[in-house]
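Regression test case RT-17, inverse folding.

Input:
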């Protein structure tokens, strides 16, 4: 195991060994290995995907040499799937690479069960009716589908799956779970054991800001009917109260308390998005329920009982100015609470598993611990079927794109394509008169051709989404990503 760890060292720092293991176990099928598909798969092969199957019935032609770096002059007349597969295998010999010389459209019609063997299918350059049929096939088999296409200087990426659950969503910015506005008994006792009015300057400037905020918040509440600051004026007044407690000029801990006071003002309890996930768990779980929904069911019980309206504590605290002794002791208080919450959750998960006839140990303690640590960041993504999106698009989103201030140059039709597009938009209820001319021009100029620069970009976006979906880390896009290389713009539309 030492070699893979060195080989994938940088990406292991992003998604960890668990994420890398998920990639190495994944089986991915690519339909059509033109530049868009090849670039997508290249990124996954370099990342250590477990197995790839390339499906393409075409042969390498002279035009392929100018836009696909994975074929060369010696490939002319050869199977495109075979040549691309051989190139990808050279990039990473640890990947199991296979190819099938067959047109994807024919495979979709003749052998739909073929796709059920894969973790994920990447479909590129498919026509609309085949895409709709493939989407139905993948949903029935519970296989994730990623669709990507390039048209000259434009392209799109879309994910399709019934439901995708994420425990490690890893948001860029997230509030520390310190419970400053709802301290539990052990934290209260720790805070009470420290005198923030101590006159010794050294001791005073080494009190952790967590202690300062909880103490001053309690003082504030006593003179404000038990309520914490809520209005802008009250929050300013509270900060002034904090500043009044300083006895020296260089008390960084009090500056930190002022800067972190917004953590105290955050609303208690569970936000609406997470509340919706708990509501979604109302349906009875059974032996076929995923580990995620079993743990959500246990979480709902925990919130109503041991959690007293809160999720399990994460257990970590940020760096802060403090004496080493007080910081370590404070850290222990948070860790002890997090461990107690985990043990309560573990017991509830085991009981639920037993009730639905599954092995009580079938969900590992490591998984439950990770779930507890990330409970406030849970995400559930659900996607419309491709057919629904095409038949009944979200017209407000489409109109928003068409009326973007950078797309308002209106003039006479430049082609029959524009006339048809305007007619279609009008039929759907959108104002076709504001359809931008440059996009129509580019599609007419390039047809359905794939330019390598655009294909590489679209392939990069698609492979990034594939990694999110397979590792179940970070939040995948939930709409249709559209790239406009003419104006160097992109948009994510919930069509």
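Golden output:
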């Amino acid at each position: 195991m030492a070699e893979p760890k060195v080989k994938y060292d940088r990406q292991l720092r992003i998604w960890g060994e668990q994420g890398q293991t998920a990639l190495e176990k994944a089986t991915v099928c690519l339909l059509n290995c033109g530049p868009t598909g090849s670039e997508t798969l290249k990124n996954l092969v370099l990342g250590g995907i477990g197995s790839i199957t390339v499906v393409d019935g075409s042969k390498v032609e002279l035009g392929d040499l100018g836009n696909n770096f994975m074929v060369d002059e010696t490939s002319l007349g050869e199977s495109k799937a075979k040549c691309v597969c051989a190139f990808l295998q050279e990039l990473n010999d640890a990947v199991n690479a296979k190819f099938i010389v067959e047109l994807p459209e024919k495979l979709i019609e003749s052998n739909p069960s073929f796709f059920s063997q894969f973790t994920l299918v990447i479909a590129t350059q498919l026509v609309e009716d085949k895409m709709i049929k493939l989407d139905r096939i993948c949903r029935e088999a519970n296989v994730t589908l990623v669709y990507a296409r390039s048209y000259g200087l434009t392209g799109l990426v879309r994910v399709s799956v019934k439901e995708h659950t994420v425990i490690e969503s890893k948001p860029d910015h997230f509030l520390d779970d310190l419970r400053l506005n709802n301290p539990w008994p052990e934290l209260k006792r720790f805070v009470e054991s420290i005198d923030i009015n101590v006159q010794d300057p050294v001791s005073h400037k080494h009190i952790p800001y967590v202690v300062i905020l909880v103490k001053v918040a309690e003082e504030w509440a006593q003179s404000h009917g038990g309520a914490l600051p809520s209005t802008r004026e009250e929050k300013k007044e509270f900060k002034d109260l904090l500043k009044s407690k300083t006895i020296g000029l260089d008390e960084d801990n009090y500056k930190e308390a002022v800067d972190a006071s917004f953590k105290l003002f955050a609303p208690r309890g569970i936000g609406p998005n997470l509340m919706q996930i708990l509501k979604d768990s109302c349906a009875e779980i059974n032996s076929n329920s995923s580990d995620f929904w079993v743990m959500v069911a246990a979480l709902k019980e925990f919130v109503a009982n041991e959690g007293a309206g809160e999720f399990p504590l994460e257990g970590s605290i940020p760096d802060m100015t403090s004496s080493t002794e007080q910081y370590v002791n404070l850290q222990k208080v948070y860790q002890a609470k997090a461990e107690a919450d985990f043990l309560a959750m573990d017991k509830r998960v085991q009981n639920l598993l037993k009730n639905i006839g599954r092995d009580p140990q079938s969900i590992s303690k490591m998984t439950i611990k990770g779930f507890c640590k990330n409970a406030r960041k849970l995400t559930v993504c659900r996607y419309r079927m491709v057919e629904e999106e095409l038949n009944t698009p979200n017209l407000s989103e489409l109109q928003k794109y068409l009326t973007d201030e950078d797309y308002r140059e209106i003039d006479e039709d430049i082609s029959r394509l524009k006339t048809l597009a305007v007619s279609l938009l009008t039929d759907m209820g959108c104002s076709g008169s504001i359809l931008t001319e440059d996009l129509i021009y580019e599609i007419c100029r390039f047809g359905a051709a794939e330019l390598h620069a655009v294909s590489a970009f679209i392939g990069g976006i698609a492979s990034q989404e594939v990694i999110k979906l397979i590792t179940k880390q970070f939040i995948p896009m939930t709409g249709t990503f559209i790239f406009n290389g003419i104006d160097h713009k992109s948009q994510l539309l919930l069509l």
